[in-house]
Structure formats: structure tokens, C-alpha cells
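User: Okay, second chain of the day. Same drill as before: sequence in, C-alpha cells out.
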Amino acid sequence: ACCAQTPGLAMADPSHIQSAASKSIRPFRSSEEYLEAMKEDLAEWFNTLYDLDIQVDTFLESLETGCHLCRHANNVNRIALDFQQRHPEVAARMRVPQNEVVFQAKNVVPGSFIARDNVSNFIQWCRQDLGIQDVLMFETNDLVLKKNEKNFVLCLLEVARRGSKFGMLAPMLIQMEEEIEEEMRDQMAYAGGPRPTDPSPLCRQVREILGCCSCPSQFPMVKVSEGKYKVGDSSTLIFVRVLRSHVMVRVGGGWDTLEHYLDKHDPCRCSSLWWGWLTRDIPPRPDLLASLSVSSSPPAP
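Assistant: Same drill. C-alpha cells below.
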């Protein structure tokens, strides 16, 4: 850990708590940032595909009638069937969607029964035609009542991921995934290094984010090659890419911002977040709370 430890919570110095609380706002912001990055990417993607003007701040509102979603589903069907005709042998090994999504497109009022029916039909198509697993699915109220923005965003990314397999334009995040997968295949085949990328913006932004911690012993993050780093004592390998103003990390099968990733893994940032909750400076985050130790102590002043 890069921060000093104290014997227990009862002995904590108030100045330590104040110091930790002053740092705790940034981790809370970072927890929202990775969703913002995904919404920015998806909004730009939808706008490019269908000549729309969806804004990040009203992303869910722009899609809550289900009209654009159902129209996109039918577009995926069309492109997938065209792909199947041109590449029957390849398509035989893929799940090809083909059931038309019925929806009403005119005079649909947000929150109305018709809007809910449109969204429900899109969800049914995602489950039955694309076979998207439940962990990436959302429910009608998640969009209509904005109850679960995260799962809605993750589902759209997965829909885009499936569509890209048939040759449909993909969001930048999906394009970066494909680039990383190709890089890994190249390395396995030729034991060579990754394809060159522009190193300057990425390296600079990574250094700026790591520089937020002023502890004498910082959380280790070592550059292996362009866009590839080892982090922590376990030497976990992560892929890092720049998406507009965000530094993104490829984590397992998904994405996170580098700041949010460090908030969950760097002991210094975890302690700051923990003490922000104890002082009620920011709301509790159950997903991050589960990853923190109860014995976490505030950082040294």
C-alpha cells in the first residue's frame, strides 16, 4: 500500500479524515466518467449511422421511445442477411438475426404504453435473435424510467459488437477491441511487438493520471509497450487506449476509464474513497465498497 496505516478507526486523527475527504470527490466523479465515455461513443455512432443529433446529456431521453432502437435492430437484420448470402460458410458458424422487430414510429410519447412496447420488442430481439446474455441485458423500466443506465449502455455496446461481425460500422470502443484482439493474435503468431500507435498523447495522459497521487511509493504501473501496461504487485497486464478526452482500459470483456480502474485497485485511492464515505462527503458505492478492506485507514497527511 502506498499510504500509511493506523491501528484502527477509533484512533483516526480528524486531520487525516479531512485530508482523505478532500480527495474523495475525484473517485466519485470517476465512477460516472466511464459511463460518460461510453455514452459519448454510442451517441456519435448512432448519429453517424442515422444522421441524428443525439447529445450525451440527453442520451437516454433520445432513445426512450424505442423507435431508434427498433429501427437499428431491423438494420442489423438486413446487414446480417446480406452477409449470410455473401458468406454462407462463415455465417453458418454465427448467430444470424432475422426476425423483424415490429414498432410504431410516429407520434410516440415517452413513457407511454406504445413507447414501452417498442422498447420491449427491442429487448426481445436482443435476447432471442442475438442471444445476448442476461448480465448485459436491461429491462424496459431501466430505459423508460432511467433505473439502470449502465446495463442499457452495456447492452447497446454488445448489440454494436454483434453488428460489427456482419460488417456494420462499430463505435470506436468496439474498433479498439478489434485492434487489441488483432494485436494479440499477431503476437501469438509471430512473437513480435504490437503495431505502432501514436505514443505521445497516451503516455502523457497516463502520466498525468498517475501523477494525481503524491505518495512516496506510488501504485506501480509499468509501460510494457505502446498501449500496454503492467499494474500492481501482481503484474496484471492491461491495454490502454485514448477515446476522445478519456483514457480507457480494456478490462476482461469490457472497458473502464483509467481513473476509475485505479480508484478500485490503488490502495491510496481506495482509502480516500472509503474515508469520503465515512465522512458522508460522497454517497456509498456498493460495487466499490465490496472491493475495499474494512481495516482501510486514512492516508498520511
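The longest helix spans residues 25-50.

User: Thanks, on to the next one.
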